[in-house]
Design goal:
CATH class: Mainly Beta
Number of helices: 4
Strand order of the largest sheet: 8-1-2-11-10-9
Helix content: 10-25%
CATH superfamily: CheA-289, Domain 4
Structural class: mainly beta
Distance between the termini: 67 Å
Mean pLDDT: 81
CATH topology: OB fold (Dihydrolipoamide Acetyltransferase, E2P)
Largest sheet: 6 strands, mixed
Radius of gyration: 18 Å
Strand content: 35-45%
Length: 179
Amino acid sequence: MSALPASPAESSPAQYLTFLLGGEMFAVGILNIKEIIEYGAVTEIPMVPPFIRGVINLRGAVVPVIDLASRFGGKRSEISRRTCIVIIELTENDERQDIGVVVDAVSEVLEIPASEIEPPPSFGARIRADFIQGMGKVNGKFVILLEVDKVLSVDEIASLSRMVTDGAVDTLAGGVPAA
């Protein structure tokens, strides 16, 4: 029995927006990217997990802003001249949600063929394995391809926010554990 030819979608390289975060190169599928804006005018919200920077007003819409470095378990990003907010559109339960993510610097859009993408490592990565879609090989180096639906899971972020506001995990917000 002969193998079926690969479909055009499988054989054509996918496009990814690459960006720096804590000195490492990450990438997100370009189809999820709505726009890239300069960092500024983020309104902080009290009683949320530290990785939620706040919200921005994007042409009249309230868009939450996530600090990816902090979301991955590190310290909050240092804001610099090259810091950007990448607006990512997610679809969850047939609802569209825009979420902004803080990145140190946007690099470029790359085409990475499927043949150059390795499965995520089972251990050793500094971020949760379910956040990684794969490891793209670009010019002899690895680029971490993010699984944006997992990294920016609206349900998970909402449940973490509820835990903080309910006082169950006050230490996340820098407070003292509830008595």
